[in-house]
Write a structure and sequence with these properties.
Layout: E1 4-7, E2 10-13, E3 16-17, H1 18-25, E4 29-33, H2 34-47, E5 53-58, H3 65-72, E6 77-80, H4 83-91, E7 99-101, H5 108-117, E8 121-124, H6 127-140, E9 144-151, E10 173-174, H7 178-187, E11 191-197, H8 208-226, E12 233-235, H9 254-265, E13 271-274, H10 278-281, E14 285-296, E15 301-305, H11 314-318, E16 324-326, E17 337-342, E18 351-358, E19 366-369, E20 391-395, E21 398-403, H12 408-412
Parallel strand pairs: 4-20, 5-6, 5-13, 6-7, 7-8, 8-9, 9-10, 9-11, 11-12, 12-13, 15-17
Antiparallel strand pairs: 1-2, 2-3, 4-14, 14-15, 14-19, 16-19, 17-18, 20-21
Helix pairs in contact: 2-9, 5-6, 8-9
Bound molecules: ligand LLP.
Length: about 425
């Protein structure tokens, strides 16, 4: 459920007509709904009620300061994967003890940043990283709390580019080697082993892969405890999928996911962390764009929008589907026709959808891409010297620009000319 609905014939974000925002900020733009963000965060929090837990929002999904602040105000922790994300989370008011540091290639600089600034735990992913972290902690006179990310070799049944839990993926250490790695970690002077971490992929639409992974983690917890490790925290990653089409998709609900966690791991008495990104932000954001031209091709019509692959790369990168709907509600029963929906970037890959059935659209009409709140704005670029598009946050009847569109001068002046030119 989200808060982007037609009212009086116009698509609204909560109580604000998107036509009003388009007039104020120009197109294209991202628009987020506070109520949807809050609701989705709370679904996870409530799904784990009764179990000691922390929901660490995977801020890679959407990391605007205003979004982070909204979630931090609800008690969210953050899952960060870079020094930049760590600083962003801190700038949004998230204390270090609510930040977990994930990622397969943390640099020593990033480790120091978090060790000095305060961190809940590092999820380490390899022996060399573990040794480096121990050295950095010792040199700062501190001890780094860690979990080891294990790779359970489970098929997450999702897009190959976002599956992370198979042995061929670069993530985690093979679960078969976990006991040896934990033994080494426990012996390193700068580390304190506190738990286990696992994340098998993103946009999972079934619970079964989670079940397989969590059962393996339960098993490993018991083995490691028997070997004397004080395993008291389990970080279960993110990955729960969202419906990208209104019609036929029904991924498991956070409540069902919470029940699965209790069923597979509840008996261990561990504190539970989860790192959802997409489900918190995905359906809390849309991308609004304007039709520049409708072009008749051979056997097809192209809808050329002012948004492009640089603004929303998911269709080009993962063949992802985003529902596209007109901002002005079409008359009931109006005849639809097929459009290839494209952007202005000079690549054929700049195609959002092929043969998409849409009501008749004309120049200057507004359309909205649904489910664009996660991995939308954060993955955008300035390719073709197209400015990063504004982000707008709606809260009831209020809206605010939370990231402004840069001017062309700002963009151009970021380059510097060497003295010899
Ligand atoms: N934790 C870790 C360690 C992760 O690598 C990820 C996502 C998450 C949590 C959050 O997963 P989520 O709940 O959002 O599924 N750009 C891709 C998605 C990449 C996901 C990367 N890791 C897309 O647009 O589909």
């Amino acid at each position: 459920m989200d808060h982007f609905l037609y009212r009086d014939g116009v698509l609204h974000a909560e109580n604000v007509p998107l036509t009003e925002i388009a007039r104020a900020v120009g197109t294209p733009f991202y628009c987020y709904s506070t109520a949807t963000l809050v609701r989705h965060f709370r679904l996870f929090d409530e799904a784990l009620a009764g179990t000691e837990h922390l929901v660490c929002y995977a801020m890679k999904a959407a990391s605007n300061q205003a979004i982070l602040r909204t979630l931090a105000g609800l008690g969210a922790g953050m899952d960060v994967v870079s020094g930049g994300e760590y600083l962003r989370a801190r700038a949004a008011g998230v204390p270090g003890e609510r930040i977990v540091f994930s990622g397969v290639g943390k640099t020593r600089d990033e480790m120091r940043l978090a060790l000095e600034g305060g961190i809940r735990q590092f999820n380490v992913e390899s022996e060399p990283e573990m040794r480096a972290l121990s050295e950095e902690a010792v040199s700062l006179g501190v001890v780094a709390p860690i979990t080891v990310r294990v790779n359970p070799d489970v098929d997450a049944k999702t897009h190959a580019k976002i599956a992370t839990g198979k042995s061929e993926n670069k993530f985690g250490i093979p679960i078969s080697r976990a006991r040896a790695v934990y033994a080494e970690a426990a012996a390193l002077p700068g580390l304190e082993v506190i738990g286990i971490d696992v994340h098998i992929g993103s946009q999972l639409t079934e619970l079964e892969p989670f079940r397989q992974a969590y059962q393996k983690v339960a098993d490993l917890t018991e083995k490691l405890r028997a070997e004397g490790h004080d395993i008291r925290r389990l970080d279960l990653g993110g990955g729960l999928g969202i419906p990208y089409t209104r019609s036929n998709e029904a991924p498991p609900l956070p409540t069902e996911y919470g029940a699965l966690i209790r069923e597979t791991l509840g008996h261990l008495g561990c504190e539970i962390e989860i790192e959802p990104g997409r489900l918190v932000a995905g359906n809390a954001g849309i991308l609004v764009s304007k039709v520049i031209y409708v072009k008749e091709g051979e056997g097809r019509d192209f809808l050329i929008l002012d948004a492009a692959m640089n603004d929303l790369i998911r269709p080009a990168m993962y063949d992802a589907h985003h529902d596209i709907i007109p901002v002005v509600e079409p008359a009931p029963g109006v005849e639809q026709s097929a459009y290839d929906v494209v952007g202005p970037v000079c690549e054929s890959g700049d195609t959002f959808a092929k043969g998409r059935m849409l009501p008749p659209l004309r120049e200057d009409d507004l359309v909205a891409f649904r489910s664009a709140g996660a991995y939308g704005a954060v993955m955008s670029s300035e390719y073709n010297t197209r400015p990063l598009i504004p982000e707008v946050l709606v809260n009831g009847r209020d809206f605010a620009v939370i990231r402004a569109r840069p001017t062309f001068d700002e963009m151009i002046n970021r380059d510097t000319i060497p003295e010899w030119l």
